[in-house]
Amino acid sequence: MKGSRGLSGVITTLIIILLVIAAIGIIWAVVSPFLKGGGGKFNAEAECMSVNLEPTALVCTGGVNDVCNVTVHRLSGGGEIAGVKLIFYDADQHNTYINTTVGNIQELATVTFTNINTSLTNVSKVEVAAYFKDTSGKEAVCGVSGAYVL
Asked: Average pLDDT of 91-115?
């Protein structure tokens, strides 16, 4: 086989290495967004589990378009929250959501939200849920952590 030409072993090895590097780059480009997106959700869920808010008082005017004052106490644990969502119920269990953006409530602090127009008649119950904001400003609302019934 004198005079026959082919690829040398070094060139073949370099081509295989370049193909493997290209394949790894393509796979990483597909998988990377899923890994980045999943981490923020897990973090918000962990934060929600450690925050505990409890409504301690509910005073309403009574009648149509009830105006209420709600006192909320934060127990120890959890990080900084973006605010609180209040969920009001009337006697027939109809509800309306009120977004109260007060910023962080410090651990063991008590805050009173005043003059909240619920658009309900004869409010009988309020529930409280904390929420966080991720780096993009998207809200992650926690489950209800406490309720106060009149």
From this structure: 85
